[in-house]
């Protein structure tokens, strides 16, 4: 039993597809797998216009590992796969390589050269080749839950709504790198992380939780260009972990976003900046140590 999709974000709509695959697999006493593609097809066709991924490969694999599946098939989306006709994809990949007996896809899934493979095409092919096709309809009322809608919410700074549509808190996983040590000078030593330039996140200050060494810690984070000190620096994620004194350099840090406190701003003086940082820290501590939203649980711990 295979659920097929790009699954960027592994949001509530994706989870509905995966749940339908699990249900079908249980009824047949078969394993349930997720099939996905890397790089994202849009990145392959438009390398000059990187897609703002909700979940790069590592994050997507982590989320899919939480979905009670028996495994994941990650196909390399290259020129050979991009040029493979839909009929050949069914015959060579689904039948020849996986021997599928049932396939689950979302209502808007397309595949094959020229994207001619639609849910209707797949259903007709299933009838010819002898496998069942489940097509999961749009999730939610009104506008369907989609990766593009969630990207737009994050880009607008509406983390809470984005998290509700994801069904978990949006997060990033990155290695902590050395920075300018300016946060230390201001009384807030931060763990610095470089995110891809196309990261779909509004600049500003956030209440977050940070995960490392098997523990989750309340924290406050700033994502932006540090306009107080730079005119045009690339965005950096700087996370201050409350009540932590250790060294995080070289560690992989998970940061999940709870709420945006304010936008990026330049102050009249460094003293004014520090005063605002104190206020940000108080509010972020309140949020990050408060009750967790049951509709948007943690995905990193």
Low-confidence stretches: none
Structural domains: how many: 2
Shape: elongated
Write down the CATH topology of the largest domain.
Answer: Rossmann fold
User: How many individual β-strands?
Assistant: 11
Strand content: 15-25%
Second CATH tier, the architecture of the largest domain = 3-Layer(aba) Sandwich
Assign a percent range to the helix content: 25-40%
Tally of DSSP helical segments? 10
C-alpha Rg (nearest Å): 22 Å
Strand order of the largest sheet: 6-11-8-9-10-7
Output mean pLDDT.
Answer: 93
Q: What is the CATH level 1 assignment of the largest domain? A: Alpha Beta
Please, what is the CATH homologous superfamily of the largest domain?
Answer: HUPs
Write structural notes for this entry:
The mean pLDDT is 93. The chain has 301 residues and is of the alpha/beta class. A 6-stranded antiparallel sheet has the order 6-11-8-9-10-7. The protein has a 5-stranded parallel sheet with strand order 3-2-1-4-5, sandwiched between helices. Helix content is 33%, strand content 23%. The chain folds into 2 domains: 2-136, HUPs (Rossmann fold, 3-Layer(aba) Sandwich), CATH 3.40.50; 170-288, Elongation Factor Tu (Ef-tu), domain 3. It contains 10 helices and 11 strands. The chain has helices at 12-28, 41-45, 57-65, 79-82, 86-97, 119-129, 147-155, 159-166, 182-185, 270-288, and strands at residues 2-4, 33-38, 71-76, 102-106, 132-136, 171-175, 191-193, 204-212, 215-224, 236-241, 252-263.
């Amino acid at each position: 039993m295979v659920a097929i999709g790009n699954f960027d974000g592994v949001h509530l709509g994706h989870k509905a597809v995966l749940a339908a695959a699990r249900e079908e697999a249980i009824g047949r006493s078969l394993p349930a797998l997720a099939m996905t593609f890397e790089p994202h097809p849009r990145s392959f066709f438009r390398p000059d216009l990187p897609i703002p991924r909700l979940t790069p490969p590592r994050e997507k694999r982590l989320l899919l590992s939480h979905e009670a599946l028996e495994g994941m098939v990650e196909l390399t989306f290259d020129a050979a796969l991009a040029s493979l006709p839909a009929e050949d994809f069914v015959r060579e990949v689904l039948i020849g390589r996986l021997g599928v007996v049932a396939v689950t896809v979302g209502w808007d899934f397309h595949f094959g050269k020229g994207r001619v493979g639609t849910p209707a095409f797949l259903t007709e092919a299933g009838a010819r080749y002898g496998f069942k096709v489940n097509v999961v309809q749009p999730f939610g009322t009104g506008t369907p839950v989609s990766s593009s809608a969630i990207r737009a919410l994050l880009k607008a700074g509406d983390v809470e709504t984005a998290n509700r549509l994801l069904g978990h808190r949006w997060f990033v996983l990155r290695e902590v790198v050395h920075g300018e040590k300016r946060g230390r000078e201001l009384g807030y030593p931060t763990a610095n992380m470089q995110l891809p330039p196309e990261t779909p996140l509004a600049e500003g200050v956030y209440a977050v939780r940070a995960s490392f060494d098997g523990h989750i810690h309340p924290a406050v984070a700033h994502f932006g260009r540090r306009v107080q000190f730079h005119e045009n620096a690339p965005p950096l994620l700087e996370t201050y972990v409350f009540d932590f004194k250790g060294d995080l350099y070289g560690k992989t840090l998970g940061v999940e976003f709870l709420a945006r406190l304010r936008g990026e701003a330049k102050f009249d003086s460094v003293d004014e900046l520090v005063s605002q940082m104190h206020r940000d820290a108080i509010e972020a501590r309140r949020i990050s140590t408060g009750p967790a939203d049951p509709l948007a649980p943690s995905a990193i711990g």
